[in-house]
Amino acid sequence: MARKEPAADAANPGRLKQIALTYKMTRKADKKxxxxxxxxxxVTFGVFLAIGFLIGHPIYLGILGxxxxxxxxxxVFGRRAERxxxxxxxxxxxxxxxxxxxxxxxxxxxxxxxMNRNQDVVHRAVGKAGIVLIAEGNPNRVKTLLxxxxxxxxxxxxxxxxxxxxxxxxxxxxxxxxxxxTMLKLPRVLTGPQVTATNDRLRxxxxxxxxxxxxxxxxxxxxxxxxxxxxxx
Length: 233
Known about the structure:
Layout: H1 4-29, H2 33-55, H3 58-89, H4 95-100, E1 108-115, E2 121-127, E3 130-136, H5 139-156, E4 162-167, H6 179-184, H7 192-203
Parallel strand pairs: 3-4
Antiparallel strand pairs: 1-2, 2-3
Helix pairs in contact: 1-3, 2-3
């Protein structure tokens, strides 16, 4: 037990430092975050304290109100911090991949399954809703990438629905902060075993990174050509 206490004591300052850092980052994008949190806490505590005086139990309701005030402030802080983070990530390359990485259980995501020289990219997610292709980049250029990737999916897994989304703020696009919600709202049409089978079939395709050609240049020392390779002329 004595060994666990120093570890717990060391973890608490780390959590507090992380909360403080998150607050500072949020405050850069949300100047009213401090006033909002204070207002939520005070109003929540005040309501419960007033109810306590009305029913003759101000101490009990005051304690409960204090705990719920902290809880309400934490919930509001989390949501506003998330909104601020999405606002800072909006338009940044790879932002959609970061959201997909935290989409939750039940989804298997593969970043950058297609990309062009302008760094427009398509990511893939597989879940009970089927296959979802998420594109980020120039809206006009990503249409070609999405169409090609969708044809590939239809050839390999013709019996699985394929959805396509374009991340952005334009008409017909999905805002980054709404990407996770939009995907979770898609109708579930596959069972768990079907999702596993779909992932197995797609895994055989590999992704863009694993299929990239070898770089040109001198061969590293100690590397040998495979048997049957090209012979020197």
